[in-house]
Amino acid sequence: MGEAVESDRATRVGAPVDCEQMADLDTTGAEEIISLKEKLAGADVELWLARPPGDALVTAERAGVISAIGEDNGRATIRLAGQTFRAENPGLDRREGEDAS
Description:
This protein has 101 residues and is an alpha/beta fold. The protein contains four helices and three strands, in the order E-H-E-H-H-E-H. The chain has a single domain (13-91), classed as Transcription Regulator spoIIAA, CATH 3.30.750.
């Protein structure tokens, strides 16, 4: 992933990961997700998981992934993740120089 980038941005940024095709999750995978979350946090980016299936979700909860990324950073769909991001950062849909109204 490279070195974490320092940031002073005021905008909340999330990196959604679509987990729908994840058949299962082992402890090594869980550790890697937590490691990725920590690296992204160093760049002020939140890790969001979308659509983890039942077995993978159970393992993620047991292995501490859900508590590490935060209950609020799970999304039912990628679309919902995008909608959440846009709702929390309404100014990002405007082009530079556009009026907010």
